[in-house]
Write a structure and sequence with these properties.
Length: 226
């Protein structure tokens, strides 16, 4: 996977076998099978099984395939990983990652599971969603964040970030700086239809609030003069 130009990563829900197969045959450079946001809580177990069995038998060609786990704070990360590693994915996506300790923890799990599944040591790479929380941008934007050999790239997660901070650009720049300095892949914003609506809603709300403040600060004489 190293040295391959990956420009587009297509997210697909892990509980939809037909959609996974369709994604594998698409023009996307890589596929991310999602066990996190794309799968309801009542479908997590089925998604693990479907993802594992589909990737085991599918002809992926040379297309890199990642599996996106549930974040550490859900308590489901280790269960997800243990369930899918027999499918030998190219990499693992760690969402809502807030520290290098979480990257190292995931790498330790991979060390053990690669032995269990007789996978070449270090083959499974890590792509972390590095800016979904304000805390993450402060810790993962530092140069020392990229010291784990398994870390392949840093992905900018704008939708979750927008719920906690407003200054996206400064967070993105910190992530880009960390990634560029250590030869990692920098992966741009995760886009979804719902996320686009949310983004434009936030922009419009901010615009209306700004206009309200301007109009409330103007006196009647100011308005008449204008």
């Amino acid at each position: 996977m190293d040295g391959k130009a990956i420009r587009t990563l297509l997210f697909v829900p892990g509980d939809q076998e037909k959609i996974i197969h369709k994604a594998l045959g698409s023009a996307a450079d890589a596929v991310i099978v999602d066990l996190e946001d794309a799968v309801g809580l009542d479908r997590k177990s089925q998604a693990r099984t479907i993802t594992r069995e589909t990737l085991r038998t599918a002809n992926t060609g040379k297309k890199p395939v990642f599996v996106c786990l549930n974040a550490f704070d859900t308590g489901m990360t280790a269960t997800d990983l243990a369930a899918v590693m027999s499918a030998k994915p190219s990499g693992i996506v760690l969402p809502k990652c807030e520290s290098t300790a979480e990257i190292d923890r995931l790498a330790h799990y991979l060390d053990i599971l690669e032995i269990r599944e007789e996978i070449e040591p270090g083959r499974t790479r890590i792509l972390t969603v590095a800016t979904e929380t304000a805390k993450a941008t402060l810790s993962l934007g530092r140069p020392e964040a990229a010291t784990n050999d398994r870390l392949w790239g840093l992905l900018w997660g704008g939708e979750d970030l927008s719920a906690t901070v407003a200054r996206h650009c400064s967070c993105k720049c910190a992530t880009l700086k960390a990634g560029d300095g250590d030869g990692l892949q920098n992966v741009n914003l995760v886009h979804s239809f719902q996320g686009s609506i949310l983004f434009f809603g936030v922009v419009l709300s901010s615009l209306f609030l700004a206009l309200e403040r301007v109009s409330s600060s103007m006196s009647l004489s100011d308005i008449a003069a204008a």
